[in-house]
């Protein structure tokens, strides 16, 4: 059984976004809502929802053409459509009676093997199925998506005692493999796992900041990146969720939780927050929240709320350098022990949150891995609560709790590590004190697990080579932001020799948040400051030759990227035989933003993609124009599907929805290619030379005249046009790859000598943002 057609009832932001994500998976979906009063268009609510999705940011669609898979209607006229649905998701208002009335209608019309589920996060399954027919209970479950559904990987699954096991498996497998979700089985308890802990953490952070007199910037600066938590921190996340939703969540959770639960200690809101809500300050969707943008003397400035007075003032970056330096030297223990109010705040919030999470086993889940997965994939924490406890040091943590006269949860009393490596596998501890395997779903292969089984074949400070079985090796980057440096280039060349000697294929993959942010610009800056131009040319030459060796290796090279693949990170992908990309791939040649052009073969390989396009209109000039437009505008794909449209990915390249399945899919592709592999033939480039260069120069001058390009934008663009058009070549004599690489080197070295490029590089390194000079 599989899901061939789905339906979502309720076209609010959440329901419509769930429908959009089904379309991302290529699954047709019905989107139904009520018939609005006094409206000529009975489907207007659902139709308007889709229109809003097409304009929304971040984009709910991986490709806007996916909107064609959504068929809009209403529940009065179109419930009969559901006769061919395999999964119907209810996402209407959180009122049990309205939901149950709808369920009666759905049970009557949906086929026997159709799953009916609710996206509720506040109402228990037991309440929703009370007095419902047996036929309904057997097919019903809660499937709690996190917002926004495209990007948040967690799906909490809550089944009842009568829910058919085959239907649970059907949904879990589909959500995992097609929707890309991490499916976590939860118990039917208030807030399930993610929100039970996450909301407690947010409220605890709010109250402790107020009590200790911290600013919202101090709280967010500390309870974010230093703990592997998104930079929104506490107050930024509350703004994102919406302040107006918090009272409803508190009311629901407080009513459902037993009197002894620690949640009740933080389940109240200060009066000034209700005043903010009443005044329209509901967070990002309103006029602002704890943060807002204001205009002062014609200038847009960021302001924040004073937690003591409720008034706004200009937001100031907190000084946490000394505290973070202590953490860098001594870890979390040094941070918590630092003699500073902010450190005390961090301890108060995180000690309570981690203790609360530990106290909820086995109430909310049977094992700690489920909780850690929920917090990683539902709240984007780098480490779940129990992984974080092990990083802090459990014995130290328990001793500090005892020193503060705080209760120690039963799970932590023995002070045993919560995870351990045993028999070359990862085990998790149970309440009994025994360890059991941290099991993955069938078909999931993680590099972090494989690395427990044997040492690296090759290793340096920036990269490693691993044996991942079946004759396949895996090249991993692990530099900061996975930026590419000479250590990585060296290990790539060493890896090519090792793979040729004892393997059949190579996969390029890492489990970082981003595949690669590009070349390490600091190395380039050092050469520029010393005006060591031969070193710059050598840097480019080494990268070019390394990537060429990768391209022409006598075995298949398959890349498995996820997240950002920019600049040099994009270039290495362009040189691979095949790519198995995670659906969330943001890939692009962005060098113009730092005053450069792609210099490691990016121009060469991207041109080749356009030149090899079948039935290409416009003759030899079209590939040059297309490549110039994409590279010159530093276009970055917003998904793997868009990367295919931009020709960064080939039609034959695969897309994996679930990031945890990416390595397994790439390995399978590599094994298949290895069976009859032949290295590619060298490519020739019939380029138009000066004809195309003149045409591009006219366009550059026009953009300059319109104010759409700065003078230095134009200078970079001219260099790019020179490379892509083939320099001063004659079209009757096609260029070789070496010729194009020489043009790249020439243009690159010329640009690094310019003060405009130096300014762009320095600005990028300082701010992380491009400079338009």
Secondary-structure blueprint of this entry?
Layout: E1 6-9, H1 13-24, E2 29-33, H2 44-55, E3 70-74, E4 87-90, H3 96-109, E5 115-118, H4 125-129, H5 134-139, E6 140-145, E7 154-159, H6 165-177, E8 182-185, H7 194-212, H8 216-222, H9 235-241, H10 246-256, H11 271-278, E9 291-296, E10 299-305, E11 312-314, H12 321-337, H13 341-359, H14 368-379, H15 385-392, H16 394-403, E12 419-422, E13 425-429, E14 435-437, H17 447-450, E15 458-459, E16 463-467, E17 472-477, H18 486-502, E18 505-508, H19 521-529, H20 533-551, E19 557-559, E20 563-566, H21 568-574, E21 578-582, E22 585-588, H22 602-611, H23 621-632, H24 640-645, E23 654-656, H25 662-674, H26 690-705, H27 711-725, H28 737-752, H29 755-767
Parallel strand pairs: 1-2, 1-4, 2-3, 4-5, 5-6, 7-8, 17-18, 18-19, 19-21, 20-22, 21-23
Antiparallel strand pairs: 6-7, 9-10, 10-11, 12-13, 13-14, 15-16, 16-17
Helix pairs in contact: 1-2, 7-13, 12-13, 13-15, 18-20, 19-29, 20-28, 22-23, 23-27, 26-27, 27-28
Structure report:
With 773 residues, the protein is an alpha/beta fold. The chain has four domains: 6-185, NAD(P)-binding Rossmann-like Domain (Rossmann fold, 3-Layer(aba) Sandwich); 194-362, N-(1-d-carboxylethyl)-l-norvaline Dehydrogenase, domain 2, CATH 1.10.1040; 447-590 and 636-674, 2-enoyl-CoA Hydratase, Chain A, domain 1; 597-634 and 681-773, no CATH class. The protein contains 29 helices and 23 strands. Strands 3-2-1-4-5-6-7-8 form an eight-stranded mixed β-sheet, with helices on both faces. Helix 18 (486-502) runs parallel beside helix 20 and helix 22 (602-611) packs across helix 23. It is globular, with a radius of gyration of 28 Å. It starts with 5 loop residues before the first strand and ends in a 6-residue tail after the last helix. The model has no long low-confidence stretch (mean pLDDT 95).
């Amino acid at each position: 059984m599989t899901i061939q057609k789905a339906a979502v009832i309720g076209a609010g932001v959440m329901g419509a976004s769930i429908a959009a994500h089904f379309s991302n998976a290529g699954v047709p979906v019905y989107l139904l809502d009520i018939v609005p009063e006094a409206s000529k268009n009975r489907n207007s609510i659902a139709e308007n929802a889709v229109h809003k999705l097409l304009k929304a940011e971040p984009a709910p669609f991986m490709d806007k053409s996916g909107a064609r898979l959504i068929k809009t209607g209403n529940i009065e006229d179109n419930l009969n459509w559901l006769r061919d649905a395999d999964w119907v998701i209810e996402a209407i208002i959180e009122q049990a009676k309205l939901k149950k009335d709808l369920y009666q209608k759905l049970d009557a019309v949906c086929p026997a093997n159709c799953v009916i589920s609710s996206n509720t996060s506040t109402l228990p399954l037991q309440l929703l199925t009370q007095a419902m027919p047996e036929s309904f209970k057997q097919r019903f479950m809660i499937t709690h998506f996190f917002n926004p559904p495209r990007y948040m990987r967690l799906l909490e699954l809550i089944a009842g005692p009568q829910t058919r096991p085959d239907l649970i498996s059907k949904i879990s497998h589909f959500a995992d493999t097609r929707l890309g979700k991490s499916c976590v089985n939860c118990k039917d308890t208030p807030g399930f796992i993610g929100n039970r802990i996450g909301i407690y953490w947010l409220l605890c952070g709010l109250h402790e900041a107020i009590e200790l007199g911290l600013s919202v910037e101090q709280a967010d600066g500390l309870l974010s990146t230093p703990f592997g938590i998104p930079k929104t921190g506490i107050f930024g996340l509350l703004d994102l969720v919406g302040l107006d939703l918090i009272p409803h969540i508190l009311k629901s959770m407080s009513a459902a939780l037993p009197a002894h639960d620690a949640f009740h200690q933080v389940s109240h809101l200060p009066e000034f927050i209700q005043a903010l809500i009443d005044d329209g300050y509901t967070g990002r969707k309103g006029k602002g929240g704890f943060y807002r943008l204001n205009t002062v003397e014609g200038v847009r400035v960021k302001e924040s709320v004073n937690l003591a007075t409720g008034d706004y003032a200009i937001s100031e970056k907190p000084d946490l350098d000394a505290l973070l330096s202590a953490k860098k030297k001594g870890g979390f223990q040094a941070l918590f022990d630092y003699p500073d109010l902010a450190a005390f705040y961090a301890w108060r919030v995180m000690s309570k949150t981690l203790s609360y999470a530990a106290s909820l086993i086995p109430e909310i889940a049977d094992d700690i891995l489920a909780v850690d997965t929920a917090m990683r994939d539902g709240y984007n924490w780098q480490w779940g609560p129990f992984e974080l406890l092990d990083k802090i040091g459990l014995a130290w943590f328990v001793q500090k709790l005892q020193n503060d006269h705080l209760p120690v949860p039963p799970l932590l009393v023995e002070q045993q590590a919560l995870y351990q490596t045993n028999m070359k596998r990862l085990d998790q501890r149970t309440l009994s004190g025994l360890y059991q395997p941290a099991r993955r779903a069938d078909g999931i292969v993680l590099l972090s697990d494989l690395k427990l089984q044997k040492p690296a074949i090759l290793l340096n400070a920036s990269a490693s080579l691993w044996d991942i079985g079946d004759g396949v090796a895996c090249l991993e980057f692990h530099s900061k932001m996975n930026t590419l440096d000479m250590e990585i280039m060296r290990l790539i060349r060493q890896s090519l020799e090792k793979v040729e000697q004892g393997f059949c294929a190579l996969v390029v993959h890492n489990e970082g948040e981003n595949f690669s942010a590009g070349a390490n610009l600091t190395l380039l800056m050092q050469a520029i400051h010393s005006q060591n131009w031969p070193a710059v040319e050598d840097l480019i030459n080494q990268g070019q030759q390394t990537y060429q060796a990768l391209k022409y290796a006598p075995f298949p090279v398959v890349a498995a990227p996820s997240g950002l693949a920019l600049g040099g990170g994009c270039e290495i992908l362009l040189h691979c035989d095949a790519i198995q990309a995670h659906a969330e791939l943001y890939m692009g040649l962005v060098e113009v933003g730092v005053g450069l052009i792609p210099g490691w073969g990016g121009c060469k390989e991207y041109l080749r993609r356009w030149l090899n396009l079948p039935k290409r209109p416009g003759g030899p000039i079209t590939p040059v124009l297309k490549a110039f437009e994409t590279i010159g505008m530093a276009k970055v794909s917003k998904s793997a599907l868009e990367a295919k449209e931009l020709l960064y990915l080939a039609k034959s390249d695969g897309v994996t929805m679930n990031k945890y399945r990416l390595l397994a899919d790439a390995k399978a592709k590599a094994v298949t290619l290895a069976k009859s592999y032949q290295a590619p033939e060298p490519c020739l480039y019939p380029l138009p030379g000066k004809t195309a260069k003149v045409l591009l120069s006219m366009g550059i001058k026009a953009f300059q005249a319109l104010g759409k390009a700065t003078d230095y934008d134009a200078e970079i663009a001219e260099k790019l046009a020179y490379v892509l058009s083939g320099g001063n070549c004659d079209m009757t004599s096609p260029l070789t790859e070496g010729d194009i690489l020489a043009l790249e080197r020439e243009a690159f070295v010329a640009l690094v000598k310019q003060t405009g490029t130096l300014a762009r590089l320095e600005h990028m390194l300082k701010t992380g943002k491009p400079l338009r000079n």
